[in-house]
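Lecture notes, part 5. Sequence design as translation. It can be helpful to think of inverse folding as translation between two languages: the language of shapes and the language of residues. The source text, in structure tokens, appears below.
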């Protein structure tokens, strides 16, 4: 069970924590949506092809993956408030660095630092919220701050489109700074001070897995391949394989004291959730990015207005599904929602590849809204399914492993999308029935096949376990 934490004596300061957590989720989601919208503009300003911008997207995700295993130990050792303040300062300084970057490699390095700060501040804010609110209010508070985070994906395209029309692209990285300053002021009123933990961190496994992950990131991105070309592909392959094998061997030798607890995989629902996250996020994670790129490189005139509207509809669909998802899950269960959600999502992706897609804006906006609804519903169901198989003792380790699997799957999905588009040479404006259309059809097939995995769930699962799953 979770150990009791000595909280602050002043009750007024506790009220700042839900606001702090909501603003933190809002900062991260809006920052991501702002970048998606500005990729073509940044590529043109830095004189690089659009297909080379995957390094900018994946560098942030790689930093989040590298920082996530450290977050539980750092918070236990130094406290959530200190970790949050440090992460917030790193995020703000990296945003200033991004606004001053003069080349794509420099911009990727600053995004790497910004991603590490973003990962730690989100993790710390979530733990602060869970330790502050009553247990029967945790689900409601988490849903509330998550909905506010989704609101950032709505505001991001709107603010980004207006900002790109009024200022250079560098100003987009400065837009979250006012919210960061508000979080900094709010965090000063929070004084949760728990007893530091002396549990050791599995530094050996971390130092082995981190280089392997960075080498994989370099192999699947054009920027990374350019940097690793002098080394040679055979040594890189040997290093990745060797580091991965040694890391797995260390984790097998230390199942309870390593980076992850192997006992988590004994839960069938948790295994299905992990596998489902891999398959679904590979197929769906790049959808907002592809919509923005496709619209701006097709006969819409390469403007950001249509892309902003599409991302706005996608975020609106993701936010609106929160209004009825709990009732739908209680009535239909996990298996029906996940299988039907995958099939509906596959049909929507297939519709994006039809001839004439790039001629009717309203058709695009409708499909974007539908994809936002289906993707958000699938993600929420998978997360709830994973947590329903855990208890208070395994929640922290399970959440860390689930987060890493989700982010690695997102990285792989985005990398595959960019590699596919580079193969079809779609960096220049062309009809969507070319590379984009073929990619949407491939994503639709993968999502449809994912439905077979969820058919293994019990038909009544979720209908009678929803109360437990929302803990």
């Amino acid at each position: 069970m979770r150990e009791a934490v000595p909280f602050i004596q002043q009750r007024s300061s506790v009220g700042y924590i839900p606001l702090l957590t909501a603003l933190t989720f809002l900062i991260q989601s809006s920052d991501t949506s702002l970048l998606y919208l500005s990729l073509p503009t940044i590529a043109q300003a830095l004189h690089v092809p659009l297909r080379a911008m995957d390094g900018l997207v994946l560098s942030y995700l790689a930093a989040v993956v590298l920082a996530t295993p450290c977050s539980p130990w750092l918070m236990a050792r130094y406290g959530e408030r200190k970790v949050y303040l440090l992460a917030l300062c790193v995020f703000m300084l990296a945003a200033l660095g991004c606004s001053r970057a003069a080349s794509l490699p420099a911009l990727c390095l600053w995004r790497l630092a910004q991603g590490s700060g973003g990962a730690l501040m989100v993790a710390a804010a979530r733990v602060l919220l869970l330790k502050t609110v009553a247990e029967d209010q945790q689900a409601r508070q988490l849903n509330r701050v998550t909905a506010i985070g989704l609101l950032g994906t709505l505001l991001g395209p709107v603010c980004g489109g207006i900002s790109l029309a009024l200022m250079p692209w560098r100003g987009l990285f400065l837009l979250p700074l006012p919210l960061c300053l508000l979080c900094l002021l709010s965090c000063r009123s929070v004084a949760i001070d728990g007893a530091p933990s002396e549990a050791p961190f599995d530094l050996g496994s971390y130092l082995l897995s981190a280089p392997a992950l960075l080498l994989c990131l370099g192999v699947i991105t054009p920027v990374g391949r350019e940097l690793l070309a002098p080394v040679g592909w055979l040594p890189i392959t040997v290093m990745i394989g060797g580091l991965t094998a040694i890391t797995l061997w260390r984790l097998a030798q230390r199942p309870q004291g390593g980076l992850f607890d192997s006992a988590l995989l004994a839960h069938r629902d948790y295994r299905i959730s992990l596998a489902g996250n891999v398959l679904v996020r590979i197929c769906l994670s790049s959808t907002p990015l592809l919509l923005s790129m496709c619209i701006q490189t097709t006969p819409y005139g390469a403007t950001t207005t249509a892309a902003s509207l599409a991302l706005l509809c996608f975020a609106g669909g993701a936010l609106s599904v929160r209004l009825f998802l709990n009732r739908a899950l209680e009535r239909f269960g996990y298996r029906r929602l996940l299988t039907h959600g995958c099939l509906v999502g596959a049909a929507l992706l297939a519709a994006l590849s039809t001839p004439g897609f790039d001629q009717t804006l309203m058709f695009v906006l409708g499909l974007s809204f539908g994809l936002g609804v289906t993707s958000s519903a699938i993600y929420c169901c998978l997360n709830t399914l994973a947590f329903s198989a855990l208890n208070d003792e395994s929640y922290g380790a399970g959440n860390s492993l689930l987060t890493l699997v989700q982010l690695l799957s997102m990285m792989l999905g985005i990398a595959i999308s960019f590699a596919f588009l580079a193969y079809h040479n779609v960096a220049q404006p062309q009809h969507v029935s070319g590379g984009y259309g073929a990619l949407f059809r491939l994503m639709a097939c993968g999502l449809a096949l994912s439905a077979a995995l969820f058919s293994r769930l019990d038909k009544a699962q979720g209908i009678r376990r929803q109360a437990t799953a929302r803990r």
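The translated text above is only one of many valid answers, since several sequences can fold into similar shapes. Residues 1-12, 426-433, 464-471 have pLDDT under 50 and may be disordered.
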